[in-house]
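Sample 1 of the test manifest.
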Amino acid sequence: MNEFELIEKLTRSLPTNKSVVVGAGDDCAVLDLGLPDRLLLFKTDAVVEGIHFQKDTPPEKIGHKALARCLSDIAAMAGTPTAALVTIALPKTFDPALIEKIYDGLNTLARQHDVAVVGGETTTNPEHMLISISLLGHVPRGKATLRSGAEVGDAIFVTGELGGSLAGRHLDFLPRLAEARWLAQHFSIHAMMDLSDGLAGDLRHILKASRVGAELLTTAIPISRAAKLMSRAESSAKPPLLAALTDGEDFELLFTVASKDAVPLMDAWKKEFPELPLKCIGKIIAHEGVHLRDQRGVRPFNVHGYAHFS
Amino acid sequence: MNEFELIEKLTRSLPTNKSVVVGAGDDCAVLDLGLPDRLLLFKTDAVVEGIHFQKDTPPEKIGHKALARCLSDIAAMAGTPTAALVTIALPKTFDPALIEKIYDGLNTLARQHDVAVVGGETTTNPEHMLISISLLGHVPRGKATLRSGAEVGDAIFVTGELGGSLAGRHLDFLPRLAEARWLAQHFSIHAMMDLSDGLAGDLRHILKASRVGAELLTTAIPISRAAKLMSRAESSAKPPLLAALTDGEDFELLFTVASKDAVPLMDAWKKEFPELPLKCIGKIIAHEGVHLRDQRGVRPFNVHGYAHFS
């Protein structure tokens, strides 16, 4: 049983109540607590030493990354973050200066997005440092962008460039909060999520939730410079296209809109966010699974994204 | 620098925003998101294998404890819990059946309090299992019971019996949610918190936040049967009174009310909660610190409660 299978089994029988609009399985939980115009977003995300960062990672970047990952999930719902709790579990022989620097990185990013850090906990984790962030946000009623709304014929878009994040970007990426809110405000976004486990694997979550498939045009997939350099530098590295399809921690936005909206959206985007590339990488189809189209034709793509347990 | 000193330093410069009513430093953060009649409560709490539970602890009890600790913090604010997120970090060689049983224990308690489990995360922690719970709750405006409201002359109350929780109670205690809400509804509770690190240490948090001191009557402190048995069984064990003052994980309510309310409160409590002892254990005084009164007179008590780092 891998991580996804275990989670699927567990989430089948979770307790629920009348406040739950969307429970487990999307980028954030969506709750209705009676605010007239808004729903609440609730999310938690952890980074672990040795997996998401290393012993020698600059501590400010650890703090930045821990919060940025969670903010990216609020972005995926087109929401606005409000308040965070920070749990740091660390060995007893910790260095207080290190923890302060982790908070420096985290607090700087929090201030940029008007997020209050309202507490948390410092506890012991005997061998490795672990940081878990809990985030509360909100979204206007009717504007939360779920994974389940993709429709056959939709155009599939992705922001930025993909792959090779491990070369450095995974530590200092910026969550696409303003971009996501702008998208939800100006267009009917059918489905959206943030890319954390790799384009192909994450796209499968949208496809499964929406009961559809996707055809991606390989030449349209934006490949990062880092992915290309890594591929050239090492013969054992992934080919660039495979890196863009399967490398984790891109934290870009993946979304679908009706095909009629594709061109107006692209035009408006270029005016609003001239610095951030946006690419139409394919379309939603009825045939389930991820399919790649290149000069040789169409073939199914079966390499999964990164799974913590496999 | 111990845990409390580090936290104090970090919490001095946390980012804040207009939603924050109470930030770091109380049992829960209190947020105003514009609900007309209520404020939100936001809390996170983690349990770690080897510290809060052991490798051979029944998994249902691990799940129960992880959620119960967090619910106890909502109780400390006289609030009602709504939704939880569950982060489980565990070694790659995990047993799926174990995780399911942890969820069984957690879900059973969640259902008892109408708490929805709306997601979370399963990630890798190489050596030990760690479970972090994130909880969202609410409280009527004006009814949140903070640590900062104790006044000179107040009577100090504690529910249940203290000490010796490690003998078993720490795994199956029940959070005092109904009791706390009843207290806040019927009496003017000046200050309240839940006992997690030991009566003496936790009382100091109320005293510090309220800038007052306390005099406890040693003969009034309710000592658990477990604390008495442990003391009798082992000559190296703490004397029972010391156990009641310093053992962690009691998860009872500690609160203060004006002295004029003490007797009416005690009478009403006995009718409402005949099974759960409530004891007046002393009074709030101007002289800072915790002082013990016994047949020999009054002396300061300086043994701190349990600190994770020391």
